């Protein structure tokens, strides 16, 4: 039901019209989300909440209540309304922009060509964290981790494990690499081996460095992915490594997907591109993450 004091009148095209008044009669005035209005009414506050969540990404109920001098119950009603209008998604303790919460995965071929220049730079920069000769590595499946194969030094002998079919195919041709292909059911959308066999192998594996990709990363939610089987394998990859290096372009940062596979505390290094938001960069540094800008 609409929040007390508001009568919601969705229009065919956004922004939506909201009439301030009682729920059973359209009294007061109307306004459209996205336009300027007086600060001393509920409609203006709701619009300001919408803009605040859009600009700051995750925002807590308590922070919004403090900012606008209202109760947390009022903020929750505002957020419920904005969620119904498609502007925000409510999450535990607050809200994120609607577009920041994703539950779908693009195909591998689509991801291969998306932000290719940034991914190439990230892969080259991440190579600095490879162990010395005789060391061990696990490569998570992904288009950015896959680009690291080209950055491998030819004079360094490494033991490398991966659950990615495309990455394994390229590594198999390198004489300096002792390759372990992690088995399991191969997901067509990512061409990654997943399932109990993959997880079981990773549980007995111990490597120097894990290079991990992610669909999304936030300070609050950590690293996340839409698929449960992928999440289980990624979780095991993170646990088996002495050092965890996340390779992710900036479009992944500030977003969250369905399933968390690692908290931010599990990450040692994030290698990303220069388009990262300054607020995100500051928050990551405050949480002790070494951020490398490629």
Fold blueprint:
Blueprint: E1 6-9, E2 17-20, E3 30-32, H1 42-56, E4 59-60, H2 61-68, H3 72-84, E5 88-91, E6 94-97, E7 101-102, H4 108-113, H5 116-126, E8 136-139, H6 143-147, E9 158-162, H7 165-171, E10 177-181, E11 185-187, E12 192-194, H8 196-203, E13 207-212, E14 216-218, E15 222-225, H9 228-239, E16 241-247, E17 256-257, E18 259-262, E19 269-272, H10 278-286, E20 290-293
Parallel strand pairs: 7-17, 8-9, 8-13, 9-10, 13-16, 16-19, 19-20
Antiparallel strand pairs: 1-2, 2-3, 4-6, 5-6, 11-12, 14-15, 15-18
Helix pairs in contact: 2-3, 8-9
Question: How many DSSP E strands?
Answer: 20
Distance between the termini: 48 Å
Radius of gyration over all CA atoms, rounded: 23 Å
Uncertain residue ranges = 1-32, 34-40
- Briefly note the structural class of the backbone: alpha/beta
Q: Tell me, rounded to a whole number, the average pLDDT.
A: 83
What is the chain-wise order of helices and strands?
Answer: EEEHEHHEEEHHEHEHEEEHEEEHEEEEHE
Strand order of the largest sheet: 10-9-8-13-16-19-20
Shape: elongated
> How many distinct helices?
10
Helix percent band: 25-40%
Strand content: 25-35%
Tell me about the largest β-sheet. 7 strands, parallel
